[in-house]
Amino acid sequence: MLEVSHLSRRFGARMVFQDVNFTLSRGARVAVVGSNGAGKSTLLRILAGLLRPSSGAISWQMESPRRGLFAPDAPIYRDLTTLENLQFFARAQNEIVDLESHIARFNLTHRKHDFAGELSSGWRARLQLAVATLGAPPILLLDEPSAHLDSDGLDLLHGVLDAHREKGISIVASNDAREVARCDFQIEF
Fold first, then answer.
1. What is the C-alpha to C-alpha distance for residues 171 and 118, in angstroms, rounded to an integer?
2. Residue 73, pLDDT score
3. Mean pLDDT of 1-16
4. 107 vs 119: CA distance, rounded Å
5. Would you say 6 and 21 are in contact if contact means Cβ atoms under 8 Å apart?
6. C or N terminus of the chain, fewer CB within 10 Å?
7. Residues 29/13, Cβ–Cβ less than 8 Å
8. For residue 20, how far is the Cα from the chain centroid?
9. What percent of the chain has pLDDT over 90?
């Protein structure tokens, strides 16, 4: 379970959001919606541990609060191949993963020796999703997940989310009505 209490974030004098409260149980899929600049991505970065909140608390009441972040600007190394990126992130997270199966799951087999910097935005998005799901993290944080995916990539994304539902919590920051409709409820910013 995840509990967020009185979470606020400011950048200098600008308050991005304040007093955000919610509780999520295992299996929940929630959409975070709001206008551009409302703080959706900032919230995900705080939940991912990449930013600190200005105030408030986050309580992870689960055995492993490991999180996977899928975002258009999620880190991948452009000078490494698809396979090398996955090897690097698996080692960095101390994950033992059958990388060949993981690559095949995301239909990246024919791209595994291509440099990430040479991939189209859609293939990079698949690679970022593959990195985010290494080791099946119990928390998936998805920022505008459909932004660069074609229909096959969207089918793949929805399959990942459906399989993840029983394992953990998925938080999707999006204003895409199709993505929001696939969630159990929404938090509006």
1. 29
2. 86
3. 95
4. 13
5. yes
6. N
7. no
8. 19
9. 75
Token pair for residue 121?
């935005």
Tokens of 107: 């239909």
Question: Any idea where the domains of the chain sit in the sequence?
Answer: 2-188
3-state DSSP assignment of residue 6:
strand
Over residues 59-80, the pLDDT tens digits come to: 988 777 789 999 988 889 999 9
CA 30 from chain centre, in angstroms, equals: 12
CA–CA separation, 73 vs 174, rounded Å?
15
In whole angstroms, what is the distance from residue 157 CA to residue 144 CA?
A: 12
**pLDDT of the residue at 122:** 95
**The pLDDT of residue 40:** 95
User: What architecture (CATH level 2) is domain 2-188?
Assistant: 3-Layer(aba) Sandwich (3.40)
Cβ-in-10-Å burial (0-12, 13-18, 19+) of 79 comes to exposed
- Name the token pair of 31: 């959409």
Residues shown for the chain: 189
Task: For CA atoms 148, 154, 159, 161, give the dihedral sign.
Answer: positive
Q: pLDDT digits over 88-111, tens only?
A: 999 998 888 899 999 999 999 999
- pTM for this structure? 0.91
